[in-house]
Design brief:
2 strands; elongated
């Protein structure tokens, strides 16, 4: 099977189910940004040296594939079961946030993104996640049938990535740099 099909040469692509849409449509932008986030998580994973954290990265990458499939499949596509982000995905992230936060000093000020290489890249992943969230919020306003879970999932994921970056820094004994507005 060839990797190129030439079906997108005119600037269109197919959603799951066969509907053709422009490659710059909001839905394509949404799941394309989720794909970008998945790649950034892959870079985080390649930099990571802590086995415990690799399990988180693995879960996230699998979830992001599910989210991409969810966003690539219009609600009217109901002839076969489609993977969708569920409340259980969101609950797992909340549980992970609580577990990691229990090991961290509570924040009293804003901190600058950075620290270890892995932490700095996780902070970058968080910003890509926030962009994906903004795009999916816009998509949900235009196409309410996508449901609430993709937006909620991305909101929790960005929180988790923030906590994960802090946790990774604490494991490496990197101190956080507080933002001084003066």
């Amino acid at each position: 099977m060839k990797i190129y099909t030439k079906t997108g040469d005119a600037g269109e692509t197919s959603l799951y189910g066969g509907k053709r849409v422009p490659k710059n449509s909001l839905r394509i932008d949404a799941y394309g940004t989720v794909d970008e986030l998945n790649s950034v998580i892959g870079v985080c994973r390649s930099l990571n040296t802590v086995k415990e954290l690799d399990l988180f990265f693995d879960e996230l990458q699998r979830d992001l594939f599910t989210l991409g499939a969810d966003l690539a499949t219009p609600e009217e596509r109901s002839t076969s079961p489609v993977l969708r982000i569920q409340e259980s995905h969101i609950g797992r992230i909340e549980k992970n946030i609580d577990a990691l936060e229990s090991h961290l000093t509570p924040l009293k000020k804003f901190i600058l993104p950075g620290g270890s290489r892995t932490s700095a890249m996780v902070h970058f992943a968080r910003t890509v996640c926030r962009r994906a969230e903004r795009i999916v919020v816009h998509l949900a306003q235009v196409e309410p049938s996508i449901g609430k879970n993709p937006v909620i999932y991305l909101n929790r994921l960005s929180d988790f990535l923030f906590v994960l970056a802090r946790y990774r820094n604490s494991l490496s004994n990197f101190s956080e740099t507080e933002w001084d507005p003066s």
